[in-house]
Structure of AAA family ATPase:
Amino acid sequence: MTDETLRAPAEVKYADELDWLESVDDGPKPYSWRLSPRMVRLFVLGSERADGLDRQIDQKWFGDRSFVERAIVTLASDRGLLLIGDPGTGKSWLAELLAAAISRNSTLVVQGTAGTTEDHIKYSWNVSMVIAKGQSRQSMIPSPIMTAMESGVIGRFEELTRSTSDVQDALISILSEKYISIPELDDDNIVFAKPGFSIIATANSRDRGVNDLSSALKRRFNFVRIPVVTNKRSEAEIVRFRTTELLRRHRIELEVPPTLLDILLQSFADLRAASAAAGSDDERLESALSTAEQIGVLEDAVLHSQFFGDRTLRAQTLAASLVGSLARRSPEDLAILNKYWHGVVEPRSKADGGEWPAFLDGGREAIATLS
Ligand SMILES: Nc1ncnc2c1ncn2[C@@H]1O[C@H](COP(=O)(O)OP(=O)(O)OP(=O)(O)O)[C@@H](O)[C@H]1O
Ligand SMILES: [Mg+2]
């Protein structure tokens, strides 16, 4: 599968690790969980020497361990889990890792949009089968959530707040009754959830207000707020880990020079500080300046140097890629970037030297082109 899939789900990508963890796991497991809570945490956060394992488990999600623990506890409880945070803070990735570790299936996903209907979270009908044979369980198409209920595994709901209140209401009954009834059928018309079923939903805090969650639904979820990573060391690790992975897809084995990674992290930290200090939205970059965006900037820069450059990542290319991805609104974002380049990059390039002068040039040129 891995050779033929653009992006394998976590349970496939880490199948080896999961098999191994399962084989050494002697902790008690809630319901039909494939791993004990401690092993789920270990899979997500990686192993430390103190764990005394014969095999090193890599860290996959970077963030405070308390979030991961609360998430795991929630999934063993009666409530669903709602991961909330800014775009690109790794909510979906954490949801995928948890579902993979607990259920070995992270693909039972419903995507919340304005067009999501109740059918998408309950069931629909295979029309030609209904015409040929009538309505029956065979002619029914279960939703991913219904499939998760029937198998006692984790179902996922992405971007919950984008769906309408009808859909949210249907979810309330699923989360409290733990069954779905099928009124069209005379018998065998209730699908009960098996133990182990739960839901991990994600919501983007910038979408707040699109469809506010009802208080009835809020009560059925435990909220875990995922903050933007601001610790430079963990952020460096996330960026390095993900970029290497993404580039492997292109069969590019490239070490990102540490000095350039530093410049990237420093620029994002500066721009975040400026955003936080800004008085109005016009003085703030539209971007959330998340870790995911840093990964995007770096990936673009590397690809650009592979396709059109001499295959070495240079500071100019990095600067151009940064400006290109952050300048979404013209003139507002460009003005902010221009101010940053004048006020921060220029003095730094004089004081620190190194790759900064090249970064200064690359950014200036990119800003001039876009203005
Ligand atoms: N804390 C983190 N640990 C590991 N990877 C992270 C982290 N934060 C972001 N990433 C990486 O950034 C990418 C984007 O993350 P993800 O799609 O999970 O964000 P999200 O919070 O769901 O964003 P959105 O609200 O836009 O859907 C992922 O590929 C992930 O690997
Ligand atoms: Mg997401």
Summary: The two ends are 45 Å apart (CA to CA).
